[in-house]
Design a protein that fits this description.
Distance between the termini: 19 Å
Pfam families: YtxH
InterPro entries: Desiccation-related_membrane (IPR052928), YtxH (IPR024623)
Radius of gyration: 31 Å
Number of strands: 0
Helix content: over 70%
Keywords: Membrane, Transmembrane, Transmembrane helix
Shape: rod-shaped
Mean pLDDT: 77
Number of domains: 1
Oligomer: single chain
Protein name: YtxH domain-containing protein
């Protein structure tokens, strides 16, 4: 039962509250007119509460959508910037190799190792950035889930 959905729980609570209130009203010794007035008031209260919950859920949904959009934009920007840096470095190495046709094998090996190291470092940075953004988003989601 640990997998109970929050939405189902809220709906069950709301229905249970309405049934309980209605039962209490019917069992109370009141005249028909008083009972109808009480039912009308309770219906108005339930309508107001439902409207508040709906509005809150809509606002939270919009907030989460904008956060997700912002985070994905940041990730895309970071990946793009680092991809451009890698592409520039590859062009630089290719240019160096082309210009130095008489380079020794050792020079080429050193350039290859430098490029490989920079590619690994760049990949690590992208990975760390994406992980950080996703972790931050998960933390915010869990906090909001607890508050809702």
């Amino acid at each position: 039962m640990g997998d109970m959905n929050t939405k189902d729980f809220l709906i069950g609570t709301l229905i249970g509250g309405i049934v309980g209130a209605t039962t209490a009203l019917f069992l109370a010794p009141k005249s028909g007119k008083e009972l109808r007035n009480d039912l009308g008031e309770q219906a108005q209260i339930a309508k107001t509460k439902t409207s508040e919950i709906t509005s809150s859920a809509y606002d939270k949904g919009n907030e989460w959508a904008s956060i997700a959009k912002e985070k994905s934009s940041n990730i895309a920007k970071t990946v793009s910037e680092q991809s451009n840096q890698v592409a520039d470095k590859v062009k630089e190495v290719a240019s160096t190799v082309k210009n130095e046709a008489d380079s020794t094998k050792e020079d080429l090996s050193a350039l290859t190792e430098d490029l490989t190291g920079e590619l690994k470092e760049s990949g690590s940075k992208v990975s760390e950035t994406v992980k950080s953004e996703v972790d931050d988003l998960e933390k915010k989601f869990e906090e909001e889930k607890k508050n809702f």
